[in-house]
Design brief:
The chain is α+β, with helices and mostly antiparallel strands. It contains 7 helices and 10 strands. A 10-stranded antiparallel sheet has the order 3-4-6-7-8-9-10-1-2-5, with no helix packed on it. Strand 6 and strand 7 form a beta hairpin. The mean pLDDT is about 90.
Length: about 400
């Protein structure tokens, strides 16, 4: 069996690429469908769902790189002529299907990879080359747009695949020619008619992808439901900027998110003679949290239970201690109040102050994710990082 193609037969490399691609497609589609539809209401189900998604993504990238290699090889090879019915319409359709199938084998996994790169956490790709892509930022709405493209191009791939299979069966069962046998491993040779459709199938395929891509891009992107807005508070120091971010570990990988809405009511006098220099109360809108793919899950009853407890509160005295400052008070999450000693650094320039610090919490102390008891799935520890810039009124 020849290594390369001839005018009458496909070579070993082309056949290997063809059947390897077919095998990967028939693995990746069920993995994606099962993972998408699988519930994750128990720790075991969540682990299995994550593993199925990881397998789906990993096989998808295998398809991507296999498709690139297959296209590069095909460009360098002689293509055996078409067998069977000489009707030009069938020849045009065959070429069109080949172009849409080849293109979708690149675009579908690429859009999936870009979705993954734009998403914080969940279901890592099983390979040692990292999870991110250059120029792709972590953005939930961007990830959803890539996911729409992935889904719509996937439909083109499935239709192309079905037409490709139907064409092969027509050649084998109706035309009874050697088209299918010529692609199987062996020595079957059959010279055919050279195809002359030129660039027309390429142009039609380009139009198909342009239309489908436009439809996908026009799909609405769901906004993040933040719940009731927080009331405006009066404060001796008006917050100008700041961030409250949390980092959790899921499947051994960090996922970082932040709260978009929170208020700070602060009194502070650095010249006060007492170690207690003031007081702060920070109210956080739990529903404003963005946390990658697990953001929606984090709002559920087993976690933050946003419908019942829409806010978390940090309140306490601002106390000067050796080497810096501490907020000494309480932290309340899901109605559970716990004592809090939170150190922070403070820099005051004129009437503008910037405070920053970190805090390590155990989510189970506040009844968050109590059903998730396996740290390999979801770590108990939650790292909080905050910064607040405020101006004296």
């Amino acid at each position: 069996m020849p290594f390369a193609n001839t005018a009458a037969s496909y070579g070993t490399v082309t056949k290997t690429f063809h059947w390897l691609t077919a095998l990967l497609i028939f693995v990746v589609i069920p993995l994606g469908v099962i993972a998408h539809n699988m519930p994750y209401d128990t720790p075991e189900a969540l682990v299995l769902k994550g593993r199925l998604y990881s397998a789906h993504k990993t096989v998808g990238l295998a398809i991507f790189f296999t498709a690139l290699a297959r296209i590069a090889w095909a460009v360098s090879q002689t293509k055996p002529g078409r067998l069977g019915d000489d009707h030009r319409a069938f020849g045009f359709l065959a070429q069109l299907v080949h172009w849409t199938l080849y293109t979708s084998l690149v675009l579908v996994p690429l859009m999936g990879w870009m979705t993954h790169a734009a998403t914080e956490g969940f279901a890592p790709i099983w390979w040692p080359f990292g999870q991110d892509l250059p120029l792709i930022s972590k953005d939930a709405q961007l990830a959803e747009r890539f996911a729409n493209l992935h889904q719509f191009f996937e439909r083109v791939m499935i239709v192309s695949l079905l037409l490709h299979i139907a064409g092969a069966l027509k050649h084998h069962l109706i035309d009874k020619d050697a088209t299918l046998r010529r692609m199987w491993f062996g020595t079957t040779q059959a010279a055919g008619t050279k195809e002359t459709h030129g660039v027309l199938p390429v142009l039609v395929a380009a139009v198909i992808f342009a239309v489908v891509g436009t439809i996908a891009a026009l799909q609405p992107v769901e906004g993040h439901e933040t719940g009731p807005a927080l009331a405006t508070v009066a404060s001796d120091w008006e917050r100008q900027d700041g961030e409250i971010a949390i980092t959790v570990q899921q499947f051994g990988s960090p996922i970082t998110g932040n709260f978009a809405e929170w208020t700070a009511q602060i009194t502070f006098d650095e010249t006060a003679s007492s170690p207690v220099k003031g007081r702060a109360e920070i109210v956080i809108n739990i529903g404003s949290l963005t946390l990658g793919t697990i953001g929606a899950q984090a709002m559920g009853p087993d976690f933050f239970d946003q419908t019942q407890f829409n806010t978390a509160t940090v309140a306490g005295d601002l106390v000067a201690v050796d080497g810096g400052y501490e907020l000494q008070g309480t932290l309340t999450i899901k109605g559970i109040e716990a004592p809090l000693n939170m150190p922070f650094d403070l820099n005051i320039e004129g009437d503008v102050a910037t405070a920053s610090g970190t805090l390590a919490l155990d989510r189970t102390s506040f009844g968050v994710g109590v059903t998730q008891t396996d740290e390999a799935t979801l770590g108990f520890g939650v790292d909080v990082a905050f910064t607040i810039t405020a101006a004296r009124e």
